[in-house]
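Quick start: read one record
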Amino acid sequence: MMPISRKPVEVKKSRRPANVGALACLPMFYSLEGKKVLVAGGSEAAAWKAELLAASGAEVHIYALALEHAFAELLKSGSIKGHFVHHERLWGAASFQGMALAIADAPEECEARAFASAAKLSGVPVNVIDNPPYCDFQFGSIVNRSPVVIGISTNGVAPILGQAIRRKIETLLPVNLQDWAKLAGDIRDKTLRFLDAGQQRRRFWERFSDLAFSGKLVPESAAADLTDTLLDEAQNSGSGRVTLVGAGPGDAEYLTLKAVRALQSADVILFDDLVDDAVLELARREAKRLLVGKRGGRESCRQEDINEMMVSLARQGKHVVRLKSGDPMIFGRGGEELDRLAKEGIPATVVPGVTSASAMAARLGISLTHRDHAQSVRFVTGHSRHGALPENVDWKGLVNPATTTVFYMGARMARRISERLIEEGMDQHTPAVAISGISSADETIWNGALENLEAGVSDLGLERPVLIAVGQVFRKQTASVFGSHKEEATLYSRSA
């Protein structure tokens, strides 16, 4: 039975709550350029805070009878931006006059209480190092790509977690991002003069941001030429563009950084039924979302309609993201879409995604090309254009015991797949695996012998996409789940 055609459906984001959720603290970026700051104590911890404050342009007044070695060396070397003033005495009530902030390393409770009280009486925000009850503000962890500065706060309750988050962010940002940010500051006025508000400016900064995250160095001698080129593109690019993006098998954490950047620059997103909501949450808030789902045996949008929509939206100057589950170039009809866009002269690029077979291998902890069992892997469609078992596949080649075969979209053909492989000479006891909803919360896995494939897939159901894989690489998986001498199959969920 032919699937019923349906029209694309615009999907509205759920209306956000009227009020902002509770915040443990308010993140702010406060300029200390030329302001005075008090630091009490001569310890290494106080020295770190003093260096940080001076790097922000502050005039740091240090009250301490003696300085630890690290602090003394800091005063000798000076600050990259602000400067230090050392008062060889303990702080007093008058010390707070004219101060923007007050920081103390006060290990004794009575000293911490006295310092915090004196600061409050003077109306100066206070921070007693590692003593949250006496803190009006926290420093948090910092990722420094100045003028890009990222602050991470756990409100003082889990500083080690904050540091771990900082390390994670550090790995995502190019080392030379600060050079691109400085260039952005230099050319900002020029973009305001030459580009219209709205689409032209956004197009310029999106292209600029792509370059900033590309890992390329800022072309210092040709920065002006680069800026003019980008300005010209933004002013004269009347047509839009299309990006085919792989959303991966389900879990949003399988997305690549390039996929996230594409989603965050999209004007319109045409997405499939199988794309998880968590993936869409990473898109630009203002992007229009259109469901153009295509599911085997179900009501689906025609491919021709999707192609027409991409062309129409791109000609309106939109950046269209065609978001597909898995990888758009593996059984995702990405080639057909690229051909149509090329025919219409519309620029198009592809962002690959993690294909389901790779996610399956990771989920099972199995190499699809383990050298002891398989010297090749084949990805095969489980049904033809007309919904039957494909006949133009090299079935004889698939029974090679040194080959791992993965069938996409083959749930309805499970019986015919097992029968055909056995007819061509494959051992009926060859290990087989079928997985429903890979990487999703309701992922379910069946393991067993090839001869029992139909029953195993039937137990999985057809509500979620099913991936079928056959080959000797799964023998270890079967043995670990059932025991080395058991022949019966089993079904287990992701949480098992």
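The domain at 241-351 is CATH 3.40.1010.10 (Cobalt-precorrin-4 Transmethylase; domain 1).
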